[in-house]
User: Which sequence fits this backbone?
């Protein structure tokens, strides 16, 4: 569209519109700079914002997974320590049993050994009732009540009141790991009851029953293997957690970087745009001030 | 005829004409900054010649008329574009306000609350027996419910505000059509006296433009110079000196104002101008967003409640409803947490012991289920926010385009109707010179007459 007659109102309208455009852009740039955000309203970049929100959701999930993993690491680490102690105690008991099985031992020696094994058994019952943050770790999911109590009527004199429930936690959207080993799989499994083995050993030592001691030593040995297996499984899970934790950190960094690329203002760019805009604004204002100040009326007398 | 005295009359007519032309120039100069003013021009016409034996002899000059220079075609286009601009500027302004309600950009909003709520169940799975942990779940759930309710409430509030604006705008339309009808009367009577009602026309033109910004209209000028205005679908607003008022009144079952013309409801026919935009916001955009929020709340309520009922609480009691009310319309307006006792959260599966966390895991897992037409709850909300952003962006971009079209049109109109001081200065010089020449002519005739008198009187 060509304009043949240029009148003052036309120049002023163009000037004001141009200035308005410039000021609007400056306003956007300055709010980017002051807020540090590239997107200050959904309309600034609707699809970018949608992506940004998705990334924020991912970040929140990964943060939660990290919390879960860190907590699982403490719990699994604690379980490992407890199982380690149980394993060591069982090995001590095994040594006592082997020593008691020696035909050179006197009945007094065996009675003393029996007391030591009895002591070990009591310690293991105590360890089997370990708690983490107030919850019993070997109770299956009945974490609020003590799983192992002394009960002469029960096999080996120790009764299990827990269940066989295994709790899992989320490490990633698709990976859940078990974080507990139920006591009936570690201590009172049908194939290798720790307390029955120890009680048999104590009984054998007390009654000078050499074949009985021999049989009980085998039982304690297999119970010790069972605890070792439980500890290995626990350790494998712990290793998984250790492996996943840095991956989660990495993932979070990745999401955060992408979110920053979308959502954060590029300050260097924004400031340079702002300075450029200021120059343009000054120039426009300068022109505006000189707009049509003169007309033929100034010249004719 | 012919002779000295007739020369005097010719000079006289020229003086009068040049003076009038200079008046037109000074009026133009005076109105150089008056919006909507169309420059005027004095049209010179030779007086009727008289026949003399030698041929035809001119008898001077008169100003036959003072005309306004206007381009009806451009003015009509400006009027139409004004309707578009009125609509888009209201749309863009109001959608901007709606964007402010979805505050995801400035701080944590509903989206963050959704993440936090579902993740709190994942956290609870770490320590299902911990009461503080359970309390955290309730806090996160309350935050989410409050934020959804608040967003819904603010949208509804804006909807009511828009409805009030509808009424105010209808009042403005009625005021304008009344004024235009009055101008029609005045213009008609001035024209019937054979005079030019230019300034009244300019006034009417600017009222018409104002009206066009408010509502879509068609208008045309009748032969007697009055303007008739019809609504977009042909209902009369102004015919000659009569204006027909629109009415904003509530027609059941709608809780909002309908636009009535006489007894017919023309709400649906108003598609443009500010009024059109207000109706689009009130009846289109806001209900769409409200419905999305309702869908979101309904989905969360029904999915969480179903899963929660399937589990058992800390005491082994089956889990009840987690949220109220039941899903459905009004879900977003009223969503709240049904549970106050943290022990009542069903983190365990039915029949599970206190340490069972499988239901908490299942509840946490809902955040990854595609519950709403292929999207997760969080994705659905992100889409809603970006929809709001796109709507607002569309209106703002449209407004920019419209503004630049309008600017071109106004420039075009001004290039025809606007006052150029340079031109007026040239005209002034021209008329002044002619005035001087005519004065001198009269002077010459005068001295010739005196000479004749002197000779005769001797």
Assistant:
């Amino acid at each position: 569209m060509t304009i043949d007659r240029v009148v003052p109102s036309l120049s002023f309208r163009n000037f004001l519109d141009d200035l308005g455009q410039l000021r609007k852009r400056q306003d956007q740039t300055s709010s980017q700079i002051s807020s540090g955000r590239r997107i200050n309203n959904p309309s600034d970049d609707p699809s970018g914002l949608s992506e940004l929100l998705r990334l924020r959701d991912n970040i929140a999930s990964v943060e939660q997974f990290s919390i879960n993993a860190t907590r699982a690491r403490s719990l699994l680490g604690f379980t490992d320590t407890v199982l380690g102690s149980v394993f060591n105690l069982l090995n001590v008991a095994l040594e006592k049993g082997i020593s008691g099985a020696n035909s050179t031992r006197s009945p007094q020696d065996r009675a003393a050994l029996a007391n030591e094994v009895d002591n070990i058994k009591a310690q293991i019952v105590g360890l089997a009732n370990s708690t983490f943050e107030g919850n019993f770790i070997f109770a299956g999911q009945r974490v609020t009540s003590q799983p192992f109590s002394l009960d002469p009527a029960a096999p080996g004199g120790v009764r299990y009141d827990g269940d066989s429930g295994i709790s899992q936690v989320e490490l990633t959207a698709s990976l859940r790991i078990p974080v507990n080993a139920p006591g009936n799989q570690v201590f009172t499994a049908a194939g290798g009851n720790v307390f029955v083995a120890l009680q048999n050993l104590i009984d054998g030592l007390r009654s000078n029953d050499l074949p009985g001691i021999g049989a009980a030593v085998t039982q304690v040995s297999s119970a010790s293997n069972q605890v070792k297996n439980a500890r290995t499984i626990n350790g494998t899970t712990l290793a998984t957690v250790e492996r996943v934790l840095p991956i989660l950190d990495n993932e979070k960094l990745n999401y955060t970087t992408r979110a920053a690329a979308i959502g954060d203002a590029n300050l260097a760019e924004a400031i340079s745009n702002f300075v450029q805009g200021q120059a343009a604004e000054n120039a426009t204002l300068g022109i505006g001030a000189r707009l049509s100040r003169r007309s033929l009326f100034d010249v004719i007398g | 005829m012919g002779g000295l005295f007739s020369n005097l009359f010719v000079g006289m007519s020229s003086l009068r004409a040049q003076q009038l032309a200079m008046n037109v120039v000074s009026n133009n100069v005076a109105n150089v900054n008056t919006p909507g003013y169309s420059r005027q021009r004095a049209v010179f016409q030779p007086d009727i010649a008289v026949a003399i034996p030698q041929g035809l002899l001119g008898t001077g000059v008169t100003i036959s008329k003072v005309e306004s220079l206007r381009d009806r075609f451009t003015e009509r286009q400006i009027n139409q574009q004004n309707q578009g601009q009125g609509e888009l500027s209201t749309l863009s302004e109001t959608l901007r306000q709606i964007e402010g309600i979805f505050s995801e950009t400035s701080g944590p909003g509903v989206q963050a609350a959704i993440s936090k709520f579902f993740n709190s169940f994942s956290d609870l799975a770490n320590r299902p027996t911990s009461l503080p942990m359970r309390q955290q779940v309730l806090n996160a759930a309350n935050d989410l419910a409050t934020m959804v309710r608040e967003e819904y409430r603010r949208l509804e509030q804006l909807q009511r505000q828009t409805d009030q604006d509808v009424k105010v705008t209808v009042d403005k339309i009625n005021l304008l059509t009344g004024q235009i009808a009055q101008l029609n009367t005045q213009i008609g009577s001035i024209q019937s006296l054979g005079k030019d009602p230019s300034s009244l026309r300019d006034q009417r033109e600017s009222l018409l433009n104002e009206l066009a910004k408010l509502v879509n209209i068609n208008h045309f000028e009748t032969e007697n110079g009055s303007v008739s205005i019809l609504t977009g679908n042909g209902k009369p607003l102004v015919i000659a000196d009569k204006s027909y008022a629109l009415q904003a009144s509530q027609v059941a079952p709608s809780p909002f104002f309908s636009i009535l013309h006489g007894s017919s409801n023309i709400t649906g026919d108003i598609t443009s101008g500010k009024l059109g935009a207000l109706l689009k916001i009130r009846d289109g955009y806001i209900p769409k967003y409200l419905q999305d929020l309702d869908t979101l709340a309904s989905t969360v309520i029904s999915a969480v409640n179903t899963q929660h009922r399937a589990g058992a609480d800390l005491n082994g009691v089956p889990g009840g409803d987690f949220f109220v009310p039941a899903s459905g319309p009004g879900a977003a307006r009223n969503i709240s947490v049904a549970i106050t006792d943290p022990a009542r959260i069903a983190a365990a599966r039915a029949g599970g012991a206190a340490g069972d966390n499988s239901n908490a895991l299942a509840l946490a897992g809902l955040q990854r289920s595609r519950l709403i037409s292929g999207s997760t709850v969080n994705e659905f909300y992100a889409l809603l926010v970006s929809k709001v952003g796109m709507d607002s962006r569309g209106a703002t971009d449209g407004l920019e385009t419209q503004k630049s079209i309008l600017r071109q049109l106004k420039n075009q109109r001004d290039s025809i109707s606007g006052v150029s001081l340079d031109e007026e200065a040239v005209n002034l010089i021209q008329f002044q010179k002619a005035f001087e020449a005519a004065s001198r002519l009269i002077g010459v005739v005068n001295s010739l007459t005196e000479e004749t008198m002197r000779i005769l009187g001797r």
In short: Chain B has a mean pLDDT of 89. Chain B has ten helices and 15 strands. The longest helix of chain B spans residues 131-192.
